[in-house]
Write a structure and sequence with these properties.
The protein is mainly alpha-helical. Helix content is 37%, strand content 0%. It is built from three helices and no strands. The longest helix is centred in the N-terminal third of the chain and has 15 residues. It is globular and about 50 Å long.
Length: 95
Amino acid sequence: MLQHHERADGEGYPFRLNKDEISDYAKIVSVCDVFTAVSAKRSYRDKFSLNEAYELIMSGVGTIFDKEVVKTFEKCFYKYNLGCKLKLPTYYKNI
């Protein structure tokens, strides 16, 4: 995918396309590519936790990543790691 390094703000490469010129597929691949890259261990750094990787993606909304693509990503992403404890509001007690 040639366009997956293009950015929503037009500062990407190789063509410096603005967000309307980037294919929807490339916008999706861009988010997935960065998330996969940072959540994997590299020889020069440890992997990001899932929450850190998620926050990195969220910090790039509107500049690096398309807002709508990230909103869809957010709906598919589990924000809490398996085994963590959550305190739910009281209205969940009767479910």
